[in-house]
Predict the structure.
Amino acid sequence: MASWTNRFEVVSHTLRHYIGPSRRPAATVIRNSNHFQASLMQPVISISDLTKTYPGGLKALDNVSLDVSEGEILALLGPNGAGKTTMISIVCGLVNPSSGSVTVAGHDIITDFRAARSLIGLVPQEMHVEAFESVRATVTFSRGLFGKPRNDALVEQILKDLSLWDKRNEKIMALSGGMKRRVMIAKALAHEPRILFLDEPTAGVDVELRKSMWELIERLRQTGVTVILTTHYIEEAENIADRVGVISKGQLLLVEEKNELMRKMGEKTLTLNLREPVKALPGGLDGFDLTLEDDGNAIVYRYDTAAERTGIGRLLSGLSGAGIGIRDLSTKQSSLEDIFVNLVRDGR
Ligand SMILES: Nc1ncnc2c1ncn2[C@@H]1O[C@H](COP(=O)(O)OP(=O)(O)O)[C@@H](O)[C@H]1O
Ligand SMILES: [Mg+2]
């Protein structure tokens, strides 16, 4: 219980930090490419005070502001109905915002729609593919939709990258679900977007395809493409994202570099298995977040990984001073999943 309270304080501190009156500062992701650093000056997507109320009154997005830097991989993490698809649909011009504004490389998505949209590739959550077309024709046609000249070499490269080249002449309806999804990605890449939105790219796909999707996203990033993906697989964000945004009930609860998020909000527990069970915690250890567990056979210490000192040395000498012998010990760090679950629960 004590640790829960601690966690809540860390969370609400972080929320205060992010939901301030001013816009969030741009990301400070450092990468080895000069191109990326130079382009950090200006966000490639800038979302300001975006709100969407659907007819009928449901507020799917509530005053969301977010900057995305060129070349980063941003994962939007949130439960079903959080507003992720709504947000993507607005940026892609498929849904009208109720208020607020979005620019893509400086182009307003409403007044300068064509320029903004031409920079974006979208792989929607729902698959719509032309069942009777061949793979290659579909992808080639998708490029034409954006007014780009035919480029067979590029389409060939995309199909090869996605392991679809062998299937290029197959009708789409003959493909497996995983391959159809890859066709969707090929379509989105066909017009050489600078920004790629992937809405739940790995929902319902097998582990192998998920891994190959992650590799593909990494390769895209190496070519300078900005990737924004939504997911409710925390493991996915943990594996591939540079930054993680947590969205719940239309509100962006926080956006943070993944490593920083895990460092800041991560909690570690140290479990000390005792030689002999004890009836109570020894005195003289005030200030330590300790609990007695396993029928008095274990003492569990929860501590903040971001703290300057963990206090473990002092704890161990305190216990030995109290005559408590330790048989074994182990530590465990909270995962992004723990952090996420707590955040969404607190956001309710
Ligand atoms: N066209 C629509 N009309 C009315 N409500 C909608 C529409 N699209 C989505 N919603 C509602 O908006 C909320 C957010 O939906 P969505 O953006 O799809 O969330 P997510 O992608 O995070 O699951 C949900 O409550 C959903 O039911
Ligand atoms: Mg969705």
Notes: The first strand starts at residue 45 and ends at 53. The chain has twelve helices and 14 strands.
